[in-house]
Design goal:
The chain is α/β, with parallel strands linked by helices. It has helices at 38-50, 79-90, 130-139, 144-152, 165-177, 182-204, 220-230, 243-258, and strands at residues 2-8, 13-19, 23-30, 57-63, 75-76, 96-100, 105-110, 116-122, 210-213, 234-236. The longest helix is centred in the C-terminal third of the chain and has 23 residues, at 182-204. It is globular and about 65 Å long.
């Protein structure tokens, strides 16, 4: 039996196809999200990667901001539930999830059976999200991929005191004009993102194992900063951008068995 999860976010579209509720046969990411061709492109890539067609899929669950716009889904499930399910499947010892996406950040506490105990979310402000990093990368004339490498070369952390993206951008420009090292500023940017995400996690209490997911989890500089703030090791989920879609595919498998 094949089931599908599609996670349509603000910045990207992700599709996972699952065989018999346990084997991932496709996991595709397209870096454009809701309101674009991204979802359809991600679907087409997943079908191509798996060698399957729409008719082979027994059940589809949609999640993410754009889940209700995807009319081919059999069911919609919240991204909180899908991230929790996907992470527990990958890392059964996970008790704290920190998910930093394109335009929001979430902290989720799990019990020992993968159930959600608490969750906290920041979706009102771009600060502390992937969008914040994109803005800063432009100001610093670098790429998101290069930022993690430059972070490692920093000799100090140039603190970013502003919690607003617009003011933080001005602060970074001012630091550059004052001769501050670009590497040190990048380290400060990463710490700013990590501090906001960890603030959400602290509201529910942090329990090991801590697992990071979302696109920002691919940035080793932010992961190091999160580990430093929490003073604990942080596990990066395998293929961290697709954990929500994986959770959706798992929900789809459960639903298909009940049909």
């Amino acid at each position: 039996m094949y089931t599908m999860g599609i996670d349509i976010g603000s910045a990207s579209s992700k599709v996972v196809i699952l065989k018999d509720g346990k084997d991932v046969v496709a996991a595709e990411v397209v870096q454009v999200g809701t309101g674009s061709s991204g979802p359809q492109r991600a679907l087409e890539q997943a079908y191509k990667a798996s060698g399957l067609t729409k008719e082979d899929i027994s059940y589809t669950v949609a999640t993410g901001y754009g889940r209700f716009a995807f009319t081919d889904a059999d069911k919609q499930v919240s991204e909180i539930s899908c991230h929790a399910k996907g992470i527990y499947f990958l890392v059964p010892t996970a008790r704290t999830i920190i998910d930093i996406g394109g335009q929001d950040a979430k902290a989720i506490r799990l019990d020992d059976k993968g159930g959600i105990k608490q969750f906290f979310m920041n979706d009102k402000c771009a600060a502390g999200t992937g969008r914040f990093l994109e803005v800063m990368s432009r100001v610093l004339e670098t790429t998101l991929d290069e930022m993690a490498e430059l972070d490692e070369k920093a000799t100090d952390t140039a603190p970013i005191s502003s919690t607003c993206t617009v003011f933080a951008e001005s602060e970074v420009i001012s630091q550059l004009s004052n001769g501050e090292s670009r590497n040190n500023i990048i380290k400060g940017v990463h710490l700013s993102v990590a501090s906001r995400a960890c603030g959400l996690a602290y509201r529910g209490g942090v329990e090991k194992d801590v697992v990071m997911t979302g696109g920002v989890a691919k940035n080793a500089g932010v992961v190091r900063a999160v580990a430093g703030v929490l003073k604990t090791d942080v596990i990066v989920a395998p293929n961290p951008q697709t954990t929500g879609a994986l959770g959706a595919a798992l929900f789809a498998y459960e639903a298909a068995q009940k049909k």
